[in-house]
Amino acid sequence: MEQFKLKRMWEDGLEMEVVLTLKGKWCEVTVDEYVTDADIESLVSTLRAFNARNGKSPKTWALDVPLVHFSLMFELANARGTVRVDVEIEQMKGDGGDMKASFSFETTMGQMDELQRQLSGFLAHETDLVESLRPE
Fold first, then answer.
1. From CA 3, how far away is CA 35, in angstroms rounded?
2. HSE on the CB side for 21, CA within 13 Å?
3. How many angstroms separate the CA atoms of 125 and 20, rounded?
4. What is the pTM of this model?
5. 41-46, long-range: CB within 8 Å, 24+ apart, which pairs?
6. What confidence tier does 95 reach under pLDDT thresholds 50, 70, 90?
7. Is the dihedral of CA 45, 27, 92, 6 positive or negative?
8. Cα–chain center distance at 135
9. CB–CB of 50/112 below 8 Å?
10. Distance between CA 123 and CA 44 in Å, rounded?
11. β-pairing, 16-23 with 28-35?
12. CB 83 within 8 A of CB 112
């Protein structure tokens, strides 16, 4: 089971529509939003910094667009390389479907390297789909 899925739906020269799905053991949240390459590059940079220090320093990536606040915090859960990902999402569409979710899931340092690699390929237009962060 992939705990992180990112699919490019559409794009032009300024932004892209992506569908991001995050799955925990008892929770799944999907957000359909418009982002820029810089937003995704910021996530890659966060992962690069986290991976470079072997998880010894927690790192947070945040996305704040007009109707959605989204953050992922990556931190080492134990000395064996287990990584906890804390997810915070707030969507304020104003259509009666507002949502707020907080949950965590675990993965490994190896999966964090793989996510960074896949997201770099996504930015380079090598793929339109990232499926990563499998629990081990």
1. 20
2. 13
3. 17
4. 0.92
5. 41/123, 43/72, 43/119, 44/116, 44/119, 44/120, 44/123, 46/72, 46/74
6. confident
7. positive
8. 15
9. yes
10. 9
11. antiparallel
12. yes
